[in-house]
Amino acid sequence: MSVPNTALEIHLASRPQGWPTELNFEVAEVAVPEPGDGEILVRNLVMSVDPYMRGRMNDTKSYVPPFQIGEPLDGGAVGEVVASNSPEFAVGDNVLHGKGWREYAIVGADHAVKVDSSVAPLSAYLGVLGMPGLTAYAGLLRVGEFKEGDVVFVSGAAGAVGAIVGQVAKLRGASKVIGSAGSAEKVRHLVDDLGFDAAFNYKDEGPVIKHLAELAPDGIDLYFDNVGGEHLEAAITLLRLRGRVVLCGAISQYNSTSATAGPNNLALAIGKRLTLRGMLANDHGDLREQFVKEVGNWIADDKLKYDETLVEGGVAKAPSAFLGMLRGENTGKMLVKLA
């Protein structure tokens, strides 16, 4: 196919104060460049929006640099190579890379990975077989030191990471898996479709601790935290001796305009000898081959299911998809179809 002279990309127009709005983003038309030595030009087909992107919109030091005002945002994307200046890639190859939020991307050959659409749809490499899937797999099995027979609680369980955590726990022999989600339909989905033993709607009347205690009267062994706040506090209360917490995300606090207090009951971690560990998928790249093989086999055998919420309409829809993801409007991975 011919490559256009110009294409669209999304820039950060201003830094959000609290909840982002459409005004924090700008659609820009830019020239499509030629790839330099060791580079490829990729026509993006599907891109990802993820909770961690909210933190990068703040001008604060973190494990990844903040987005810059007036510059394009980035994130996971899959696309087709349309021009190559690298012997490692040919025109027509499908690749996974980190330059989303734009229709065409220049990518260094060492920052792109070939993906096979005959194994799974390209979109799967942004979700169940991509960063969210590896986050769930490594977080549960390595960081959380999952043991057969554990009682596992997962917050944000209908999201891209949480849904995989719960299913992997069941497939690896958890005695009980409990999830929390933000609607009655998501609760039904967790239990009826994904095989969770129990789930609750955290928006229902009563505190999280009440709902969790009813479903885990004898306590829990492992908590996979995607939410933070009240969920983390409830889990600490109900964790048994030498329980473990995987600190993966704290989406309930990402849009706070004031400092957020830690759990009021953190002192319980002393007597219970709890382990609370933060995790990033990038630290566990050595597990990728094992992860893709095991999870890929489960998908092929219909033992593990995954969901995608696909927003159509091109790159201009990326900001609204991102905002919808922060509001919990997605089931499974939130994606944007670019072409």
Topology:
Elements: E1 6-12, E2 25-31, E3 39-48, H1 52-56, E4 77-84, E5 94-97, E6 104-108, E7 113-114, H2 131-143, E8 151-154, H3 162-171, E9 176-181, H4 184-193, E10 198-201, H5 208-215, E11 220-225, H6 229-238, E12 239-247, H7 268-272, E13 275-278, H8 288-300, E14 308-311, H9 318-326, E15 333-337
Parallel strand pairs: 8-9, 8-11, 9-10, 11-12, 12-13, 14-15
Antiparallel strand pairs: 1-2, 3-4, 3-6, 3-15, 4-5, 5-7
Helix pairs in contact: 2-3, 2-8, 5-6
Number of helices: 9
Second-tier CATH architecture of the largest domain: Alpha-Beta Complex
Helix content: 10-25%
Radius of gyration: 20 Å
Number of domains: 2
Mean pLDDT: 94
CATH class of the largest domain reads: Alpha Beta
**CATH homology superfamily of the largest domain:** Medium-chain alcohol dehydrogenases, catalytic domain
pLDDT < 50 stretches: none
For the record, give the distance between the C-alpha atoms at the N and C termini, rounded to a whole number. Answer: 13 Å
Task: List the secondary-structure elements in sequence, H or E.
Answer: EEEHEEEEHEHEHEHEHEHEHEHE
Classify the secondary structure makeup into a structural class. alpha/beta
- Biggest sheet, in brief? 7 strands, mixed
Count of extended strands: 15
Shape: globular
Summarize the structure.
The chain is α/β, with parallel strands linked by helices and 339 residues long. The chain contains 9 helices and 15 strands.
